Amino acid sequence: MFTFSETVGIDPGSQYLRIIHNNKLIFNEPAHFSIDSVENKISGIGNTTRTTKESIVVSPVNYTISDFIGFEHLMKQALKQGLANRYSSYKSYKVFFSLPTQATEAEKRTYKDSAEHAGAKEVYMIHQNICAALGMNILHEKKDFILIEWGASKFDISVFVKGFPVSVGSVRMGIRTLSNLLLNHLSSNYQVPIINKDIEHILMDLKAISSKNEFRIGTTIISFQSIQPILNAYFTFVNLEIQNTLAAVKTSIDFEKVMSKGVHYTGGGSTFEYMRKQLTFDQEISYTLSQSPLLDTINGLKMVITQPTAYKPYLMI
Known about the structure:
This protein is of the alpha/beta class. 37% of the residues lie in helices and 27% in strands. It contains ten helices and 17 strands. It is flat, with a radius of gyration of 21 Å.
């Protein structure tokens, strides 16, 4: 019989990998690792990932697992680091995964297989929208609401009625996708040295940038109009997904109740005010931004692991 101490919860995000054990966060670092191309071995993981010329950086998650073997290595190394010397004493353990709401059956299988390859005896899965709603304390408290999860590789919208998602939409393009588009555009059109941190600052300052109509990278002045087509194209996809997801439940008797409870935002992308204001709804609607948008999913997963029987209707095997 398994004890709670032999159970781990894993939130395999595209940007960060988070692991819990004994109700504590034991790993919360970037979801990548490096391989020394000369020695042909892992040279760093998460915060210790190396970026030397001899290093190959592997990021095995892009919305879902995109590199099965890479993710297995990442998970094993993260567990070893998080559990220290206790990991080797676990002949088998139980894993709870939070996985993207729109993951296909084939993609779900990769989570199960990767955990089993890494030594898991039992594997349970639950969708990230359920975990996020639990972590935000709205799944049972609000019951009827709209949840938007805006991460590195996704924009997900879920309509909940009586505590269950009844309509879900997803755009597999998150903040990282938009950042890469902007980085490529600015690098090729302005020939200025630019890094991801510069893009992050641009996204944070977009509200001010759009009103001033310009911004600087080093000594180069760039007009807001030059990046507006990229932003417009991105939000066209996102807003279309919002419309389609809401249209599926518009005739429901619960629709007005859902709208009255407003939109609840979580995920790193939700922290950018300009981004939130580009979303369009057919009617005026209130919104609430999570107080811990980066940790809602893993916090919700903690609750699931603590009381798995209570959340059995949401669990998948």
